[in-house]
Amino acid sequence: MNQQRVILITGTSRGIGLGLARHYLKLGDTVCGCSRAESAIDEPGYTHFGLDVADEPRVVAMVRSVARKHGRIDVLINNAGIASMNHALLSTGATAKSIFATNFHGTFLFCREVAKVMIRRKTGRIINFTTVATPLRLEGESLYAASKAAVESLTEVFARELGPTGVTVNAVGPTPTPTDLIKSVPKAKMDALLARQAIAKLGSIEDVINVVDFFASPRSAFVTGQVVYLGGVVG
Amino acid sequence: MDTSSIVSADSVREVIVETLPPGIDQQGRIFGGDAPLDSLGLVNFLADLEYKLAERFGRDLVLASERAMSRKNSPFRDVAALTDYVVELLGE
Predict the structure, then answer these.
(1) Averaged over A140-144, what is the pLDDT?
(2) Contact call for residues A31 and A216 (beta carbons, < 8 A)
């Protein structure tokens, strides 16, 4: 039932995005991915676009190229994201702009463009990425958490606006997972963060895939505007 | 696909009229005032129109642009205004 979907995933060069791309390719889906870096995947069924998710003309061109080639996009996974751990008073304006450009602006552009493709077929699944840093109000993550709070609002309002169209919009909030995004976080800080989760451990890419699979399922047509955090974190 | 560099208003108007949702008079209002299209109807129409304009003219336009949104008179109000607006975008 899940076979042969056309799935667009942002940020597929590493980490969770790479894991998601490999997962769906293994299931037989067609995957179109993008990242600023070169493709890390060389498999049939995968097409890579080199771009910055905040570059509007490039995003428009990618989405319409995928729609023209395949005639549809079944699932959008807005995974691309960057973080910068620092005290708010030590953070620069340039860092704030950069984090919001990738995390919020990029998510918005892909939601808008892919939704235009999906509403023509009156079906589709959009899955955005937030973080447990937002509900935990995590110290040192003010810019990252704020950008993801914006993604959560975007998800909830998009879900309402697209409610009548058959397109669902949800978000998953992973705990820290062993990816590049957290490699510079000191162990003591990481332990303190994990202690605030109901299940105090690092998550895995498989944990994230499980929630994405649920939102992406054709059976989840009545699930929209939801944010699911992993690790027992409550929003 | 029309690959000529100058796109005629007639060919743009033709695509717009072909794309108009049922019940919209090509002489009347598309959006605003007493037009029958609501916001979601406009969204659906513009998504269809972007797709068909790309098929016909080979250009990926974003119709809900800064320029459209900042105008005093909406370029989406009727077929004539929308035709002028699309010709302008295609001419860039």
Answers:
(1) 94
(2) no
